[in-house]
Amino acid sequence: MILLRRLLGDVLRRQRQRQGRTLREVSAAARVSLGYLSEVERGQKEASSELLAAICDALDVRMSEVMREVSDELSLAELAAMATLSEGDLLRPVLEPVPLPAPGVDRAGSVPKASAMDVVAA
Q1: Model confidence pLDDT, tens digit, residues 4-58
Q2: What's the pTM?
Q3: What is the CATH number of the domain that holds 31?
């Protein structure tokens, strides 16, 4: 399963590393704890929109750029996941059809015994 928080963390980490900045520098500028920012980058914590805005401001990058990069990575991950499925896997029904028993035969394959009602009706 593809985790959005993991992709977002990867993008934020790359942005920070491209700038040659440390976690400590960015966490101070974003006013978020070093440990929490580290967990966000590792995809262990979900970043709220407010926290994401603060991190983007600290990195001097537009949130739309970060989200676009996350979206691109999500698309690639989905395509890669689909490519691992064979065509047969895509066409296989989820539930196998169950044949119905012939009239007068129960599911175990035996003919039910007549009841008193059947004898009276005959």
Answers
A1: 999 999 999 999 999 999 999 999 999 999 999 999 999 999 999 999 999 999 9
A2: 0.68
A3: 1.10.260.40
Give 3-26 as a DSSP string. Answer: -HHHHHHHHHHHHHHHTT--HHHH
Which whole-number Å values give the CA distances from 63 to 1, 40, 45, 53, 92, in the listed order? 24, 15, 18, 7, 41
Q: Report d(CA 63, CA 107) in Å as an integer.
A: 60
Q: Which residue range is the domain that position 72 belongs to?
A: 4-85
**Three-point CA angle 9, 11, 14, nearest 5°:** 110
